[in-house]
Amino acid sequence: ESFNTAVEAASELNAFIVTTPEKALEAADAVDAARAKGEVLGSMAGVPIGMKDLFATDGVQTTAASHILEGFIPRYESTVSAKLWEAGCGMLGKLNLDQFAMGSSNETSYFGNVASPWRKEGTNAAMSPGGSSGGSSAAVAARIAPAATGTDTGGSIRQPAAFTGICGIKPTYGRCSRWGVVAFASSLDQAGPMARSVEDCAIMLGAMAGFDPKDSTSLDAPVPDWFGGLDADMRGKRVGIPKEYRMEGTDQAILDSWDKGAEWLRDAGAEIVEVSLPHTKYALPAYYIVAPAEASSNLARYDGVRYGLRDLPEGAGLQDMYAATRAAGFGDEVKRRVMLGTYVLSAGFYDAYYTQAMKVRTLVQRDFDAAFEQCDVILAPTTPTPSFPLNSLNDDPLTMYLNDVFAVPASLAGLPAMSVPATVTEDGLPLGLQIVGRAMDEQGVLNAGLAIE
Ligand code: GLN
Fold this sequence. Notes:
The chain is α/β, with parallel strands linked by helices. The chain has one domain (1-453): Amidase signature (AS) domain (Amidase signature (AS) enzymes). It has helices at residues 2-13, 21-36, 79-86, 134-141, 158-164, 198-208, 252-267, 280-298, 318-329, 332-345, 351-371, 397-402, 408-413, 442-452; strands spanning 16-19, 48-52, 90-95, 147-152, 167-170, 190-195, 238-242, 271-275, 377-381, 417-424, 430-437. The chain has an eleven-stranded mixed β-sheet, sandwiched between helices. The longest helix is centred in the C-terminal third of the chain and has 21 residues, at 351-371. It is globular, with a radius of gyration of 21 Å. The chain binds glutamine (GLN). Glutamine (GLN) binds at residues 101-104, 132, 152-156, 184, 291, 404. Residues 2-446 form the Amidase domain. Keywords: ATP-binding, Ligase, Nucleotide-binding, Protein biosynthesis. Its EC number is 6.3.5.7. This is Glutamyl-tRNA(Gln) amidotransferase subunit A.
């Protein structure tokens, strides 16, 4: 019964592309049976979760929220989802997202936009839950699912978490296997948990992470007990405040929230120091070259032969089928990225754009290396603005891209980064703060998050 109430709420928000209540119940039954036999239970025994529809799920349609994958039913399970089932989770359904995880508002989905459960005080306009993991953020914020998976290429876990007042962590690149996750930009894509609390994120990340020989960039390192290691005592820790993040165009409420966060960490015993990340302003343009370049290559596989949609006009040849399938199957934002990507990789422009962006990426990484000589974690806003009404930025891709300005540097550097809810605006919208840590130091990130929470 409570599931049906939740489903109703979820359908108002359009958070799910498909629901699979029977899978959640099966997992609960399996836990009951295991408990009756006195077996050791998994770390997430019986917890019903939402699965971003970017993870391949055996026997359950997997679309990446694109028409081109509609009807695609994988015969394999992504490593991350398999690990979660092994830990005892059950699947409530596949969550809506921006098409191929390209977007910051969840409006690029073929299956319609997702609405945030939040409203600005005194207004009734539906707000964006952020993106690309907007089905995940909306479902967790609306208490439809206690937790959900997300993926983050340039902010897609952190920005939606910030917009909806929940927690989300993108671990160090390589911590979670990319095997079976629909690829967007492979050198940046990372899976991670989205949940109500830092504690829940620590438990869930523990279940998701681990070396996987099927992913050539998987990190071959043991998974620490992050939940067991949680400690909000910040004494002896230095927290860096990057001065270049004080950017024009950032809301005053966000700057105030940032100051508050620093104060809370100081109260928890941390020393606050100013650090410099001088190449910050080049990170976003570099990201919007590297990510589309990789996407244009990754998305070449959707040709009408191997997956989902096939558009074969009467009397058409192979090339015509490719063209017709891709024209009908990809949404506008996906096409924009493919065109951007093929352009920056083309013989005449490769050096001017792609090579240059890769150099910037190295400089951004070096900025962080230098900053982490002076501090243990970095505190920054997650986004430059709170959530915005749906349909308000659709005609303005550049402003939309700017939403990720604080998120992409950590992505380019492959560092663990988390968003935790901090304050609310005067009109009642949640604001998140971001903590970035050294490579492999998820624990430091989670602990600072706990001190803020
Ligand atoms: N919003 C960013 C983009 O559109 C990031 C997306 C993501 O992290 N998947 O590329």
